[in-house]
Amino acid sequence: MDILTKLERGERLDFKEALALYDLDLFTLGHYASMRREALHGKKSYFNINRHINPTNICKDICKFCAFSAHRKNPNPYTMSHQEIMAIVEDGVARGVKEFHIVSAHNDQVDLEWYLGIFRKIKERFPQVHIKALTAAEVNFLAKEHGLQFGALLDLMIESGVDSMPGGGAEIFDEKIRAQICKGKVSSQEWLEIHRLWHQRGRKSNATMLFGHIEERSHRIDHILRIRALQDETGGFNCFIPLVYQTQNNYLNVPYPLTGQEYLKTIAIARILLDNIPHIKAYWASSTLNLALVAQEFGADDLDGTIEQEAIQSAAGAKSRNGVKVEELVHLIRDSGFIPVERDSLYNELKVWT
Ligand code: V47
Predict the structure, then answer these.
(1) Measured in angstroms, how far is the CA atom of residue 116 from the centroid of ligand 1?
(2) CA angle, residues 14, 232, 269, in degrees to nearest 5
(3) Does residue 211 line the site of ligand 1, with CB under 6 A?
(4) Which long-range contacts (CB under 8 A, 24 or more apart) does 189-195 make?
(5) CB neighbours (10 Å) of residue 233?
(6) Rounded to the nearest whole angstrom, what is the distance from the C-alpha of residue 34 to the centroid of ligand 1?
(7) If you measure from the C-alpha of residue 54 to the centroid of ligand 1, how many angstroms do you get, rounded to a whole number?
(8) What SS3 state is found at 162?
């Protein structure tokens, strides 16, 4: 059976068929991705009112793509005190922030209690807020640094107040590419195992893919299919997030950024292949807001949120440092023909903005 017939029938594609999707023209891909998006979500586009906090940039690992961690190209190491973090949280909650997205570097100069105490203090003061924290790369680092099994650390995170896990640290699962861009960091197998264990605890998480650097299309397909396989097993992923590699201030020499066309094709292919993951996020901090809005026509149904302070993409060149105002995000979603739906971190609908 040819691929178009399979797409028409909504059937699952294998690796070879999935790779061949890239040879279809953008609008054909957009058509099939939109069919899936609309069947799941209609014209709704989700966002949340969130605040990113990056409590430290001191990192034991050196990923070649990273401009956030304190290294020779970015020599400004910092580690926030719990007091500083709580001041940000107090201010955010007072203005309506409902989710704190907390991602750090792999800091061996602070103890485990410094990491976990952040969550406990936030939850003691504001039990209602959602904490999305610690990527699988951080979990891997902390577990090894402090002699814990992954499961034991995940239990400590839950006891301390972490609600869900962000999707970072996945990068590209292909082991050869991984060895070139982030040698020594969490392996692909470990990343998947940490999310498996998290899902087995009844918790939700996201999955990212960093692309537009030295990987090939086949590596992206391999990555997406490994996520699909784990989702078949656990059902614990809420959303998939293709992150566009930002080219500045890091050690990967990639002269040209990814094209808009390649981004949209990848969003559409992810929507088509991931028949078991409810949401595809166009993370505007890495794609630009403009392209994220277009991505709504190619399968994306989630635009992340207001973010307020973005440090990882912007360190590498993205224009996302100051987040986006909720009114602007709503206006942009509405004016691009979609329905802005404020969601909580687990995708329960909070408010349809009119
Ligand atoms: O894993 C680092 C990426 C990720 C660069 O779960 C870069 O909702 C582009 O976890 N160019 C961390 N990307 C961010 C993360 C995240 C972000 C948004 C939403 C969610 C979610 C999670 O940032 C890392 C890495 O892939 N990153 N450097 C760069 N130069």
Answers:
(1) 21
(2) 45
(3) no
(4) 190/136, 190/140, 190/150, 191/136, 191/137, 191/140, 192/226, 192/230, 193/150, 194/136, 194/139, 194/140, 194/150, 194/154, 195/136, 195/165, 195/230, 195/234, 195/236, 195/237
(5) 12
(6) 25
(7) 12
(8) coil
Is the C-beta atom of 171 inside 6 A of ligand 1?
yes
Residue nearest to atom 14 of ligand 1 (CA): 168
- Between CA 140 and CA 190 the distance in angstroms is 7
For residue 142, give both structure tokens.
């902390």
Find out whether the beta carbon of 103 lies less than 6 Å from any atom of ligand 1. Answer: yes
CB neighbour burial string for 123-157, b if at least 16 within 10 angstroms, e if fewer: beebeebbbbbbbbbbbbbbbeeeebebeebbebb
10 CA → ligand 1 middle, Å = 30
13-338: CATH topology: TIM Barrel (3.20.20)
What's the gap in Å between 243 CA and the centre of ligand 1?
Answer: 6
Any atom of ligand 1 within 6 Å of the Cβ of 245: yes
Answer whether 0.90 is exceeded by the pTM. yes
Domain boundary assignment for the chain: 13-338
Ligand 1 touching residue 206 (CB < 6 A): yes
Phi and psi angles of residue 132, each rounded to the nearest 5 degrees, phi first: -105, 110
10-residue block means of pLDDT along the chain (354 residues)? 92 97 97 98 97 96 93 86 98 96 96 98 98 98 98 98 98 98 96 98 98 98 98 98 94 91 98 98 95 98 94 90 94 97 97 93
Q: Name which residue sits closest to atom 28 of ligand 1, judged by CA.
A: 66
